[in-house]
């Protein structure tokens, strides 16, 4: 009964907090609601545990504080995803501990819900993931142009199929020493799966950024053009997201930010991506004096580098800047902004759902490439350890 009263108290407090927030962004409101609910649950659990003179909650709380500290220091870094995932894992263990210790109804409900999810995953698991990847690959094949970058879900599905066959059939007929050597494949895959999970987690968290409507510049990152002169639906979504922010700020602050359209002219394009975006924005009724072109860049790194040079020439002492790109891309773009000492957060434009798995995989490969030395060191250490184990196993046989 006490836990119910405490929970309702915190629920009411955070309910009032959420609905005092003035926001037109539905995603932001959902996030605030989830935050309010989570804080209500967590506060109740901590209070009940404290009454039992137990303080195991300090473990997940410590991981969350570490996440918050590093995220506040620098939002766009992979370690933030690791800290948050450690928080989630320790919080799950804490729920089990809490249920055993207090036998409270809140912990029991959470464990039952998470248990059902675990049963569903165990029942469907890898096979369902493989089938979904094949299904997604077919959709992308039909709707997008044929290119290696659009075949990533298919490649991953084929690799997972091989792993499934290997783990259930092939490994059983191999000599022990050879099976140890071949363990390099599933172990290295598991390593990159963990890295991908950290990347995906922080990418999703980063999308919750809600910059205030007090910006001086919005950088819109370029992408390929249709027929060499028109914005594609993908690029249009980036421009539309920037224009949406521009309009909201103009209503609230009566002064819109300058729009920096950033993107050079590719070898197969008739005009620069910046010019194509400008043409699109003018058709939407944006005044030409609020548009600045950056038409020299060929990469996201250069988008940030050359846009910063334009911003540095302004007469504003400490210009406030954000950038617009697709939701799967803004985390890596934020890293490039940091590399150029450009203090700018990203706002996310929506992407077609069928394209997201392929897009996130492509971003992840780009992230791995950026940190290839670190991953190469791990893989070399892993292969060295497995080689030693295989050698020892082979000697013991004889």
UniProtKB/TrEMBL annotation:
Q: What is this protein called?
A: YdcF family protein
The upper taxonomy is:
Bacteria, Bacillati, Bacillota, Bacilli, Lactobacillales
- Residue stretches spanning the membrane: 30-48, 55-71, 77-97, 109-135, 147-166, 178-205, 376-395
Key words of the record: Membrane, Transmembrane, Transmembrane helix
Q: Which InterPro entries does the record match to this protein?
A: Cell_Envelope_Assoc (IPR051599), DUF218 (IPR003848), Rossmann-like_a/b/a_fold (IPR014729)
| Domain DUF218 positions | 216-365
């Amino acid at each position: 009964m006490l836990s119910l009263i405490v929970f309702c108290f915190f629920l009411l407090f955070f309910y009032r907090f959420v609905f005092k927030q003035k926001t037109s962004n539905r995603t932001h409101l959902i996030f605030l609601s989830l935050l309010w609910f989570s804080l209500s649950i967590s506060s109740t659990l901590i209070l009940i545990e404290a009454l039992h003179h137990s303080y195991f909650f300090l473990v997940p709380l410590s991981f969350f504080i570490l996440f918050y500290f590093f995220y506040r220091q620098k939002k766009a870094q992979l370690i933030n995803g690791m800290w948050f995932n450690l928080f989630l894992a320790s919080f799950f263990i804490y729920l089990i501990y809490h249920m055993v210790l207090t036998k409270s109804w809140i912990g029991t409900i959470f464990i039952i819900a998470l248990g059902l999810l675990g049963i569903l995953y165990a029942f469907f698991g890898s096979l369902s993931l493989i089938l979904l990847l094949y299904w997604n690959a077919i959709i992308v094949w039909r709707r997008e142009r044929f290119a290696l970058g659009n075949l990533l879900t298919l490649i991953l599905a084929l690799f997972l199929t091989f792993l499934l066959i290997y783990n259930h059939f092939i490994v059983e007929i191999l000599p022990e020493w050879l099976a140890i050597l071949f363990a390099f494949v599933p172990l290295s895959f598991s390593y990159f799966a963990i890295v991908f999970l950290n990347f995906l987690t922080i990418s999703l968290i980063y999308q919750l950024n809600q910059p205030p409507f007090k910006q001086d510049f919005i950088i819109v990152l370029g992408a390929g053009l249709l027929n060499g002169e028109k914005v594609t639906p993908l690029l249009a979504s980036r421009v539309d997201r920037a224009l949406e922010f521009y309009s909201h700020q103009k209503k609230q602050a009566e002064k819109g930010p300058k729009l920096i359209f950033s993107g050079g002219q590719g070898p197969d394009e008739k005009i620069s991506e910046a010019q194509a975006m400008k043409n699109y924005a003018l058709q939407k009724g944006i005044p030409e004096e609020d548009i600045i072109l950056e038409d020299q860049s060929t990469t996201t790194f250069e988008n940030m580098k050359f846009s910063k040079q334009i911003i540095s020439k302004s007469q504003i002492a400490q210009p406030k800047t954000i950038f617009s790109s697709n939701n799967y891309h803004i985390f890596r773009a934020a890293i490039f902004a940091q590399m150029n000492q450009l203090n700018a957060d990203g706002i996310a434009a929506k992407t077609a759902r069928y394209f997201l798995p392929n897009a996130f995989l492509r971003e992840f490969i780009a992230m791995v490439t950026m940190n290839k030395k670190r991953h190469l060191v791990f893989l070399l250490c892993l292969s060295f350890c497995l080689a030693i184990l295989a050698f020892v196993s082979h000697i013991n046989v004889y």
